[in-house]
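Below is a filled-in request sheet from our internal design queue. Each sheet records the structural input a requester submitted and the sequence that came back. We keep these sheets so that new team members can see what a complete request looks like end to end.

REQUESTER: design group, bay 2
PRIORITY: normal
MODE: inverse folding
CHAIN LENGTH: 391
BACKBONE (tokenized):
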């Protein structure tokens, strides 16, 4: 198999960096599907029965911490590993036992994998020539790819004469000329600096939309995942914890793991219980008390143990102490220019808490201050204490 290198944003500064992709029709045919995939190495189970489906033209992202099995699943789809159990389908064809060369896919690895002794033009042409593609067709595809990616003036350079971003574009160009059934990306941006990652993220998403390609992308970076995906597949311990459109998964996490993993800074979590006060439902614990909101959806069993989740941007400075959910004892103010966060605690025995500060509060906040904060009730998340599943 030829090795080919190859935003909808989170609620942050990337939101305006690109157009929001159009949603895929519900009846879009499935291009790639994994059914009940299991894989173990030396008796250590990595994948424990994973099901993933990617519709025609979709951009699916596997996201999760290191060791959750996302790269293993990608390598199984590519044919670089063989599944212990389960089946893989591409365009409805069972490819579980097929070698990589017969799957018609293009894969992007963490390294650029460019041939250092070949020019950009020859790197782009290499895979096509191995397949005995006619010379005129090779040249036509190179012209098309280089025009898309701005490589026209770089075709005669060697990889060592290119910047990291240019090398990444050459790798993506090899994917374009390949015109594969499926494009696989294995953390291709991990070697780039932060500014370049943001730039190339946009390039990848725009390229995907322009080609109408079907892509499966692996990353542990939640910003990449939220920016690129049509559909997120959150993996944890070899299983799919949750899947769906990025913002849906972010706003309605089904477990404590998903709630903590997606979001930067991470969600605040408090050990608490459900209470009924004068006919109203409250969630209280570790210095926080929240009325109504999502607590109304919970069977009002007094004393029911829960975990209360509040994202930092949903924990705001209260107008006065009467409407406060708690008091934040500030130990650090993190000023980021366009926004600021205060770190501290609500009670000395509770967890560290992060609250977003508006500019007028950020300029005044100092270490040692005690700030009344209010959790927005409609954005509070409640999880069962034992199962850690959303209520």
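RETURNED SEQUENCE:
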């Amino acid at each position: 198999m030829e090795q080919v290198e190859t935003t909808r944003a989170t609620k942050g500064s990337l939101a305006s960096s690109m157009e929001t992709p159009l949603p895929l029709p519900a009846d879009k045919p499935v291009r790639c599907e994994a059914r009940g995939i299991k894989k173990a190495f030396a008796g250590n189970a990595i994948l424990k029965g994973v099901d993933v489906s990617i519709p025609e033209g979709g951009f699916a992202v596997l996201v999760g911490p290191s060791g959750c099995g996302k790269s293993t699943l990608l390598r199984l789809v590519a044919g670089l590993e063989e599944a212990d159990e389960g089946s893989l389908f591409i365009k409805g064809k069972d490819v579980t036992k097929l070698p990589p060369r017969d799957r018609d896919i293009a894969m992007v690895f963490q390294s650029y994998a460019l041939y250092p002794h070949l020019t950009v033009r020859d790197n782009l042409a290499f895979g096509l020539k191995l397949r005995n593609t006619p010379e005129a067709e090779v040249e036509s595809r190179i012209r098309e790819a280089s025009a898309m990616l701005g490589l026209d003036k770089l075709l005669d350079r060697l990889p060592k004469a290119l910047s990291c971003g240019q090398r990444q574009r050459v790798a993506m160009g090899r994917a374009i000329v390949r015109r594969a059934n499926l494009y696989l990306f294995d953390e291709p941006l991990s070697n780039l600096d932060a500014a370049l990652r943001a730039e190339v993220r946009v390039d990848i998403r725009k390229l995907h939309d322009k080609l109408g390609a079907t892509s499966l992308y692996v990353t542990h970076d939640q910003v990449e995942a939220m920016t690129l995906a049509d559909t997120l597949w959150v993996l944890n311990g070899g299983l799919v914890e949750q899947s769906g459109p990025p913002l849906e998964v972010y706003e309605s996490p089904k477990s404590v793991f998903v709630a903590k993993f997606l979001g930067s800074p991470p969600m605040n979590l408090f050990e608490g219980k459900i209470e009924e006060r004068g006919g109203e439902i409250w969630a209280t614990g570790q210095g926080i008390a929240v009325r109504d909101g999502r607590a109304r959806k919970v069977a009002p069993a007094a004393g029911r143990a829960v975990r209360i989740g509040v994202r930092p941007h949903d924990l705001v400075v209260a107008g006065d102490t009467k409407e406060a959910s708690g008091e934040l004892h500030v130990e650090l103010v993190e000023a980021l220019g366009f926004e600021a966060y205060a770190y501290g605690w609500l009670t000395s025995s509770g967890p560290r808490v992060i609250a977003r500060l508006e500019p007028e509060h950020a300029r005044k906040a100092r270490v040692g201050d005690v700030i009344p904060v209010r959790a927005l009730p409609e954005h509070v998340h409640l999880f069962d204490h034992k199962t850690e599943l959303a209520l």
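SHEET NOTES:
- The first helix runs from residue 70 to 78.
- The two ends are 46 Å apart (CA to CA).
FILED BY: M.R.
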